[in-house]
């Protein structure tokens, strides 16, 4: 029998033997023997060199996975089990005993008919529980580098014990595990829990070791080294503290203190020669990273076959020192690399290949074991990264040392080693664990050739490697490594080093030193430019021109709070002159103008956010500002808008900040000025707006403000209109919802300019913008509807082909409205489209309309330019700089710009007609300037869009209160696309809230911390047709949180539903109960639903350990993200049906955003908790609960919200100018005024929404309310304090007991 057949049959044989209760001992003996051998291996401190151990371990794990999978797939619901027993009673009597025995022997587990008897399943489950009575499996998996499996086995073990006991008793194991998983967030959680436990006064040394451990796990290497040195000073060198020295030397290597590592290791080996086996690999690694070939040859010459530790020198297994030793990955691979480099240096080809084969073979065991299961890539990634390092080493040595290009088989001979390294760094994860070894090897290889190291190219490459290492060290707060790397790179890259050093000082809080160092470097650069005016040494000057711009720009940004604004303006001007084509130089200057404007607004003693209707606080009508200040502020607005426009001309990296901000400033300034130009009738305004109008008219300087303001507004409007001809129209899609919300602007000139932009964007992309504007067409506001129709008609004049498209679109909108509002017959769960909607047009093949799924609606913006990378050579920088300064661009760019000028019209639209997408043609005549960043060939949307082919005839009617309808659209690709037609609900709130989430996703991708954790909000498409109904994209693979939880409760108890309903009726809260009674009844109801069961869902749904780990991490992180976003936006009604779980990824998906802006506090039974964090939600997060990943993610998200508050508020401004907040929550006067504005025209300013936006800003700043006492905190809380406060409120039984019973706080 072949090995593959045996591997296939073995799980079924074991399953059969356990089911018959005949072979359980067989597997037990094998597992115990393997555990015993592993423990012996631990005691002897010998690394496994054979592949057999990894493969044996993997076979055992595969068998356990098979048992777990069968146990989860053959779960019998207790209710189904009762039905089965009743059916068996009605069946004929059983056959004779002999025949019955024969049948049972043939199929004892009922495998043939696809079912299992209860006894077989119970035996399998009992055996699985028996395997997890201790941590043996988890420790074996950890030993053989399967860390996700080790964590899963630990969680299965902890599910049978008390979590508090597990954390306190096994925190060391968890810390080691999280270190290997690179999960710092969970490590922080363990450390936090340990800090809550009283310190062991009888063993003070334990506290020191735990402190060192926490430093290492959280990346605080500097502090760990200091702690090590303190401990070493108190303890003499002897056999019992070898692991202490190993930890200390490993940290020195991490800090790139290579020479210090060699000196310390050599000194210890002189005193204790028997320790050479453990210390010599550290010396070898330090020597090859220093390129000290003599020392490397000396260290590699030691023989290791006769030097081992004596048994008396073993370290106690329970010693804290053993923890420190286990935290460090074996240095065996670095030792192999050193020996390979040593042979390459001696040009010994045979020994080179011999050492290379040994290194490759050492990696094959773990890789082959990982390949035996699902998720092998993630498990074996560390070893694959080492394989890549060996391949790069082999390629370089063969090509540059042995000059044998014929032996290079995998990589083409034409490939440049610099390009290969650059591609490697681009693909590696942003983690020093993978990047730093590659950089170290690259530096050493460049110095391997005696001739090559004198070349200027090699010097520059080595300097860039050190710069990259410095950036990584700075990002991880590794001060010693950062400074050491910068000192090594200073000779070849002085300007880059000055920039990086200043950033390092700024991050440390030494802001004055950072500014002074940049000023000093600026003086040096100016002096060198003066001295080199008459010289021919142009190379250095040309290469550093862009770097000079970086110096000017960084100095200007750092000096904003430390220098007069005139000096800051001069610095920004110098940066713009040095790099006029950079988006950053213009963007940060615009932000500085914006900051000056905000400071002027805040200086107004009469300013009050409670009376403002714009972001500029209606400063023109203020009595607390002098005329001079008002004129200055208007100039700041003009300069800021102008500079934002220039930044978008050269790139779109900051488009979500710059575009939304310039539109907000422009439109709000026009709104502030409107009462001076054309007083608004008092009959159509609220009291606040009336007071502003009266104040504007009665100001003594009203005439001057009007004259100067009109001139500035005209300049701004002309600048914006002119700027729109220089950029492609798809940029405006980033802020299109906000532009549409201001469609009825009160100032005539501004309104015409804004509507003109909307018209041209619609003409360029009608398929996408149609769905963003359908709520305008169906609006009850007559002016909004008329403006929408006028824009569509004007676009049809620009593009004649759009006329038929608009006609078909209006027909579709009306038909969808009719379908949504159809009530139907009670109890009817299906509707025939052809029978009940005979006039419904089902085919749209003649004039195709885009299916509005989210993937087709998201605009794809061009990537930001890459100016500096590890592949950037001095010659390349020089050539690029010279071309830019001379106004000449590379030939490829010239071709792109020529094509752009020939093909694009006023907004960069293509003028060639396309038949694939109706309405995408234009006939513009204006040309785009030759100097522009954008490529005419960039496609913001896919060319092959999926359009509506037809509608499926059968419509499913759901059973919820509004009875929404599930329709299915057949696309032009033949696929089905389901949507939900929802009525009696204003989906504009959902649409705007998802716009906010979509924009926040952009922030999550730009932030390094959130991007590293892959944080994201799961969004979907929502398109309101009018104020009453709309379309919602149907997402597959979603289950409600209630259905998943109750499933496992029913498995635990056959009559769960019956008893649960009875308990809810008895103990369900009521408004006539006292708080004490509610609390006691809730505890009784909660006790019935204990213990929590949601952790079982992840075990059952994801049998593979890697998928289990990733899915549960997705659940915890997505829950944390939406908890913070929901709290900031006041999102309520988070009952168990509004929180869905993606069964494929484990992510949480929230639906129904109608209860927004803390509307839950106005319910008859108010919602007191900030978000849903019931005991089952916490149970799904695993052993750590809210500590670790959840808490850390919440803190990161809240930090990001505070940093990006201006950008996020710009999205929330759409609520102010689009009357989305329910009028029933407003006063009668406000409702009447808004209705008058709808009838008589003008922009509706929803004052209730303005109040809600201000409340959101208060929460962002850290102001909270203690719902238990009803008191508001006096001072704003820090991010950490606010998160801790919210978690305590969300998990408080005193607050949960006051929730409405339908919210199901007991689940």
From TrEMBL:
It is found in: Nucleus. PANTHER family: ATAXIA TELANGIECTASIA MUTATED ATM -RELATED, SERINE_THREONINE-PROTEIN KINASE ATR. SUPFAM superfamilies: Protein kinase-like (PK-like). Its EC number is 2.7.11.1. Residues 1275-1307 form the FATC domain. The keyword Nucleus applies. GO terms for biological process: DNA damage checkpoint signaling; DNA repair; telomere maintenance. It is an enzyme of class 2 (transferase). The keyword DNA-binding does not apply. This is Serine/threonine-protein kinase ATR. Residues 951-1265 form the PI3K/PI4K catalytic domain. Residues 82-111 are annotated as: Disordered. It comes from the Eukaryota. Its main location: nucleus. Gene3D superfamilies: Phosphatidylinositol 3-/4-kinase, catalytic domain, Phosphatidylinositol 3-kinase Catalytic Subunit, Chain A, domain 4. Belongs to the PI3/PI4-kinase family. ATM subfamily. Residues 136-779 form the FAT domain.
């Amino acid at each position: 029998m072949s090995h593959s057949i045996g591997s296939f049959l073995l799980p079924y044989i074991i399953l059969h033997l356990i089911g018959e209760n005949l072979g359980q001992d067989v597997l037990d003996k094998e597992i115990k023997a393997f555990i015993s051998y592993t423990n012996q291996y631990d005691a002897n401190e010998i690394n496994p060199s054979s592949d057999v151990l990894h493969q044996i371990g993997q076979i055992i794990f595969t068998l356990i996975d098979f048992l777990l999978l069968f146990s989860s797939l053959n779960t019998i619901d207790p209710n189904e089990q009762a039905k089965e027993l009743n059916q068996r009673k009605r069946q004929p009597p059983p056959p004779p005993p002999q025949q019955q025995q024969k049948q049972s022997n043939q199929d004892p587990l009922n495998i043939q008919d696809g079912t299992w008897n209860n006894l077989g399943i119970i035996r399998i489950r009992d055996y699985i529980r028996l395997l997890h009575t201790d941590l043996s499996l988890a420790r074996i998996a950890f030993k053989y580098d399967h860390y996700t499996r080790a964590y899963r086995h630990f969680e299965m073990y902890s599910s049978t014990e008390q979590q508090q006991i597990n954390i306190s008793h096994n925190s060391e194991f968890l810390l080691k595990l999280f270190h290997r998983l690179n999960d710092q967030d969970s490590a922080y959680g363990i450390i936090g829990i340990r800090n809550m436990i009283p310190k062991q006064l009888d063993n003070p040394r334990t506290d020191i070791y735990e402190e060192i451990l926490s430093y290492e796990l959280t990346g605080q290497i500097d502090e760990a080294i200091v702690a090590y040195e303190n401990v070493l000073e108190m303890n003499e060198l002897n056999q019992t503290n070898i692991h202490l020295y190993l930890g200390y030397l490993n940290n020195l290597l991490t800090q790139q203190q290579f020479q210090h590592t060699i000196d310390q290791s050599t000194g210890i080996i002189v005193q204790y020669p028997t320790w050479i086996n453990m210390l010599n690999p550290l010396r070898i690694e330090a020597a090859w990273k220093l390129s000290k070939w003599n020392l490397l040859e000396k260290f590699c010459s030691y023989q290791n076959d006769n030097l081992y530790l004596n048994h008396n020198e073993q370290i106690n297994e329970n010693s804290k020192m053993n923890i420190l030793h286990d935290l460090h990955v074996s240095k065996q691979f670095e030792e192999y690399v050193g020996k390979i480099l040593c042979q390459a240096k001696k040009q010994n080809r045979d020994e080179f290949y011999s050492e290379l084969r040994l290194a490759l073979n050492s990696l094959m065991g773990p890789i082959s074991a990982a390949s035996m299961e699902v998720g092998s890539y993630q498990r074996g990634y560390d070893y694959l990264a080492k394989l890549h390092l060996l391949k790069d080493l082999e390629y370089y040595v063969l090509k540059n040392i042995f000059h044998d290009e014929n032996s290079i088989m995998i990589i083409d001979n034409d490939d440049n080693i610099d390009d290969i390294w650059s591609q490697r760094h681009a693909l590696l994860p942003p983690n020093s664990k993978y990047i730093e070894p590659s950089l170290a090897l690259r530096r050493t290889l460049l110095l391997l050739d005696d001739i090559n190291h004198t070349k200027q190219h090699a010097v520059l490459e080595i300097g860039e490697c050190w710069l990259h290492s410095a950036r990584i060290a700075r990002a991880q707060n590794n001060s010693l490594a950062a400074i050491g790397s910068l000192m090594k790179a200073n000779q070849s890259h002085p300007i880059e080093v000055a920039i990086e050093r200043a950033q390092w000082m700024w991050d440390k809080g030494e802001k004055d030193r950072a500014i002074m160092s940049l000023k000093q470097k600026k003086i040096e650069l100016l002096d060198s430019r003066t001295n080199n005016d008459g010289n021919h040494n142009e190379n250095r000057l040309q290469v550093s021109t862009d770097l000079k711009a970086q110096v000017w720009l960084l100095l200007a940004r750092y000096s904003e709070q430390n220098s007069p604004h005139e000096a800051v303006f001069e610095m920004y001007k110098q940066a713009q002159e040095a790099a006029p084509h950079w988006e950053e130089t213009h963007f940060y200057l615009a932000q500085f103008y914006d900051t000056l404007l905000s400071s002027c607004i805040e200086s107004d003693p009469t300013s009050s956010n409670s009376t403002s209707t714009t972001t500029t606080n209606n400063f023109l009508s203020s009595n607390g500002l002098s005329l001079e200040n008002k004129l200055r502020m208007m100039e700041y607005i003009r300069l800021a808008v102008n500079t934002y426009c220039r930044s978008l001309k050269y790139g779109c990296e900051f488009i979500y900040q710059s575009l939304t901000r310039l539109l907000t400033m422009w439109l709000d300034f026009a709104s502030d000025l409107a009462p001076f130009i054309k007083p608004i009738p008092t009959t159509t305004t609220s009291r606040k707006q009336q007071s502003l109008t009266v104040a504007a008219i009665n100001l003594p300087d009203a005439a001057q403000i009007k004259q100067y303001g009109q001139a500035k507004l005209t300049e701004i409007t002309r600048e914006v209109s002119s700027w729109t001809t220089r950029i492609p129209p798809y940029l405006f899609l980033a802020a299109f919802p906000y532009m549409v919300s201001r469609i009825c602007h009160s100032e005539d000139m501004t309104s015409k300019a804004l509507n003109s932009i909307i018209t041209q964007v619609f003409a360029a992309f009608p398929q996408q913008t149609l769905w963003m504007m359908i709520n305008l067409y169906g609006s009850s506001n007559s002016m909004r509807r008329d403006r929408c129709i006028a824009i569509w008609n004007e676009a049809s004049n620009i593009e004649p082909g759009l006329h038929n498209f608009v006609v078909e679109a209006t027909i579709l909108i009306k038909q969808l409205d009719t379908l949504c509002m159809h009530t139907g017959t009670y109890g009817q769960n299906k509707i025939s489209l052809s029978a009940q909607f005979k006039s419904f047009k089902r085919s749209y093949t003649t004039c195709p309309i885009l299916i509005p799924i989210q993937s087709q609606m998201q605009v794809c913006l061009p990537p930001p330019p890459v100016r500096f990378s590890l592949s950037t050579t001095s010659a390349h920088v020089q050539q690029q700089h010279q071309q830019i300064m001379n106004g000449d661009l590379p030939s490829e760019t010239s071709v792109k710009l020529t094509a752009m000028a020939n093909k694009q019209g006023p907004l960069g639209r293509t003028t060639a007609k396309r038949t694939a997408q109706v309405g995408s043609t234009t006939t513009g005549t204006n040309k785009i300037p030759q100097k522009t960043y954008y490529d005419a060939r960039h496609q913001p949307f896919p060319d092959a869009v999926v359009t509506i082919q037809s509608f499926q005839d059968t419509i499913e009617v759901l059973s919820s209160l509004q009875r929404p309808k599930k329709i299915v659209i057949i696309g032009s690709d033949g696929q089905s696309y389901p949507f939900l037609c929802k009525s009696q609900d204003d989906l504009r709130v959902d649409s705007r809230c998802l716009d906010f989430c979509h924009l926040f996703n952009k922030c999550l991708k730009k932030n390094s911390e959130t991007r590293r954790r892959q944080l994201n909000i799961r969004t979907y498409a929502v398109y309101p047709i009018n104020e009453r109904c709309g379309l919602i994209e149907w997402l597959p693979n979603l289950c409600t949180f209630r259905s998943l939880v109750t499933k496992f409760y029913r498995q635990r108890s056959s009559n769960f539903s019956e008893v649960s309903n009875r308990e809810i009726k008895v103990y369900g809260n009521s408004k006539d109960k006292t708080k004490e009674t509610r609390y006691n009844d809730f505890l009784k109801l909660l006790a019935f639903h204990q213990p929590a069961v949601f952790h079982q869902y992840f075990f059952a749904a994801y049998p593979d350990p890697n998928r289990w780990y990733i899915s549960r991490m997705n659940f915890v992180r997505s829950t944390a993200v939406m908890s913070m976003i929901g709290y900031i936006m006041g999102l309520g009604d988070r009952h168990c049906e509004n929180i869905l779980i993606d069964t494929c990824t484990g992510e949480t998906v929230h639906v129904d955003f109608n209860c927004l802006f803390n509307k839950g506090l106005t319910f008859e039974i108010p919602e007191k908790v900030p978000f849903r964090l019931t005991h089952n939600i916490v149970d799904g997060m695993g052993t750590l609960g809210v500590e670790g990943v959840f808490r850390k993610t919440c803190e990161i998200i809240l930090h990001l919200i505070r940093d990006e508050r201006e950008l996020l508020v710009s999205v929330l401004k759409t609520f102010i100018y689009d009357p989305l907040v329910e009028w029933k929550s407003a006063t009668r006067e406000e409702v009447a005024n808004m209705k008058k504005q709808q009838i008589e025209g003008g922009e509706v300013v929803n004052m209730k929404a303005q109040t809600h936006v201000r409340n959101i800003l208060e929460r962002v700043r850290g102001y909270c309310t203690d719902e238990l006492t009803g008191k508001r905190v006096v001072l704003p809380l820090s991010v950490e304090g606010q998160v801790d406060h919210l978690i305590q409120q969300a998990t408080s039984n005193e607050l949960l007991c006051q929730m409405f019973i339908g919210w199901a706080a007991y689940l």
